[in-house]
Specification:
The structure holds two protein chains of two kinds. By secondary structure, chain A is α/β, with parallel strands linked by helices. Chain A has helices spanning 49-55, 82-88, 110-122, 126-139, 156-167, 186-203, 214-220, 238-243, 248-261; strands at 2-14, 20-33, 38-43, 65-72, 75-76, 93-96, 174-178, 206-211, 223-228, 231-236. In chain A, the strands form two sheets. In chain A, strands 6-7-8-3-9-10 form a six-stranded mixed sheet, with helices on both faces. In chain A, strands 2-1-4-5 form a four-stranded antiparallel sheet, with helices on one face. In chain A, α3 (110-122) packs across α4 and α4 (126-139) packs across α5. The longest helix of chain A has 18 residues, at 186-203. Chain A starts with a strand and ends with a helix. Chain B has eleven helices and ten strands. Chain B has helices at 49-56, 79-87, 106-118, 123-136, 142-145, 149-152, 155-167, 185-200, 212-218, 236-241, 246-254; strands spanning 5-14, 23-33, 38-42, 64-69, 72-73, 89-92, 173-177, 204-209, 221-226, 229-235. Chain B has a six-stranded mixed sheet with strand order 6-7-8-3-9-10, sandwiched between helices. A four-stranded antiparallel sheet of chain B has the order 2-1-4-5, with helices on one face. The termini of chain B are far apart. Classes of the chains: A alpha/beta, B alpha/beta.
Amino acid sequence: MIDIRNLSVTYSRMTSEGRGSSAAAVKNVSIAIRKGQFSALAGESGSGKSTVLMAIPGLLPPGTAVSGEILLDGKNLLTLPENELNRIRWRRIAIVPQGAMNSFTPVLTVGRHVEEVLSVHLGLSRKEALDRIPSLFALAGLDGELARRYPHELSGGQKQRAAIALALACSPDYLLCDEPTTALDVITQQGIIATLKNLVEEKGLGLLLISHDLPLAASVADRLHILKDGELVEEGDPGEITARPRNPHTRALVKALLDLEEES
Amino acid sequence: MTALLDIRNLTAVFPGGRRREPVRALSGLTIALEKGESLSVIGESGSGKTTLLRCILGHVSPSEGSITLFGQDTASADGAEMTALRRRCAMVSQDPYGSLPPTLTVLEAAMEPWLLVRGKHAAGEGEERARNLLAELGLRDETILSSRVRLSLSGGQRQRVAIARALILDPELLLCDEPTSMQDASTRGEIIGILAKRQQSGMSMIFVTHDLFLARKAAPRGIVLHKGLVVEEGLCRDILSAPKHPYTRALVAALPRLTSHGRPK
């Protein structure tokens, strides 16, 4: 389990006048991510969703003030030295970053990206890495032949699936996905969400989906968390939250969405 | 009554190159819109919806077919006539980053179309209109109004400035290309409400979106575009409740919704 306890994150930044200022992005957030469970963190833009995600593998910018605990099987990741974190990143906790589709190096084939991850993190040879690609791509719902292609030769949906395959390269226990379907058409989105759901149900991964799309998050997650201005305002069963929102912000959000869905 | 917009058998083909096939963006599209009538255009990326808007404004020349805008055939309109036609329309582009002047302040950006058309001597009235529009769209804070677009606005706020720019000259036909894609759910409803008020006072609108729920809210009537072809048309209500074409059925089935907790297989 990844047990986030009372996480607070404050970014420090320099103003144009050269003075330092700080902004609290996440305040006292607690979330548990369990293996075999699909968790979702929903919120509007600027609510702090990505900050929570990036704090888990210790990828916030240097100088950011972080407090609380992030326990991975009881070990606090926030106090772990960098070399130990590096053994956890990708191998135990992998991320599909926001805009993953645009994060491939254009001059390398998609397969070379996977080889690099396997070589750096697991010390595999090129031959060993190549052998793993077909099954890895199949997990992400991709034809292994596509590994020979360059990123620009794939469609948006294929690139997103390749980013998922890349994150799965070292068989992580936990997968953290930041808006993995935002730039995609809804029919493509549906397929990718089904693939993620399958990874949780068949492979027992612990998954955290970050999305601004409450209907999407609620329709797929086992457990839903709603973030507003850096604070967790609601958490629980998605059906329960959308049927009986307790927080005024969630109520307004659910009402706005239902107004759109239901015929006026 | 002459139609506001009469599009017959519109086909738009982008020529290919040495290594590219020609792209048929629109095939044989026919639409008629009366004054005060609105239409939602539903389609996903690559369906041809943006090309349709660009054809109406004369930015893309049809390969076949005709477009009659305010009773005038756009193919035979000369430069000055086309400008006159365009002035009766307004467009909210898909990309609020590329379509706003970055160095103007928010207030100046909202006023700019007014000043270009009405001239500097009408600046007082322009500012008042811009302020009212921006306030209606939820941008009231004086520090935001006086700061530069480039420095201080989120994507959602930029889209609202783009809508203010489009409405400031009271267009007869508003062309909206995914105008609320960067808005949070609660703001999206407010913007659709603002556009609905304009429609009630006679403005026509073509509202392009991939979101069927939003399409139904924006206009009663809609067409579904898929790979440049109209695959379904009718009342948005009926398209959502009883889609006929296999593509529309897939689209409706894939829509995430709060009301039914349909979990993906």
